[in-house]
Fold this sequence. Notes:
This protein is α+β, with helices and mostly antiparallel strands. The chain has one domain (about 5-235). It is built from 4 helices and 13 strands. The protein is globular. Residues about 5-15 and about 235-243 have low confidence and may be disordered.
Amino acid sequence: xxxxLSDTGALGTGQRGSRLAPDPATTPDAxxxxxxxxxxxxxxxxxxxxxxxxxxxxxxxxxxxxVMDSYFRRTGSAVVIRKRAPDARWFGNAxxxxxDKRGEGVDALIKRIGQAxxxxxxxxxxxxxxxxxxxxxxxxxxxxxxxxxxxxxSTAIGKDYLGDRLLAKAPSGSGFQVSLFGLLGVLxxxxxxxxxxxxxxxxxxDPFSPAIRLPLLGRLGAAPSQLRRLxxxxxxxxxxxxx
Length: 243
């Protein structure tokens, strides 16, 4: 696979972080985070771009795995692996944390993430709607590494694209989904809850961390349980809205 490789930030992305990622200079533990931020221009009204950030134990910088249409047009491969601030703005839009794993056992997850990224079957394709796109990539990797418990919101258009398959695990790797080319489908999962996809637009409910999932708006309600546990470990009990 011809992967796009770069040590610089994407055009339009600010390189200063938003303080969602632990400082690698003072964090010896391994870290994996999944982020999402509104897309550029008109696409941002409908959906988000997602990416995965990893830092092995002892590493002094983050490696980012993502799919970008600009690299696809330039190189023929949409998969980009590069160093950049993991929580930088995306074309001026602030990122939100969708999954976070740290500490023991995370180095093994990082190896599996790298392998899944290199095995992504749509590296030489990119379609904004209904996929394959950046969210198709993140969902593919998340299915391969279900320990991430990545809860992609309904605004991650393309996460339900399965190519010519009809049945697969939900993007979190928990439960299952049925999807017809990412245009029509249903998802049931212990992480995401229940969601119906109509023309790429997701409508659903998460009964486990009470919230509703809506097109354009994303998740409205309590934070996903994994992120809530992380916040409580760091700051004590809290309640916050999810992505």
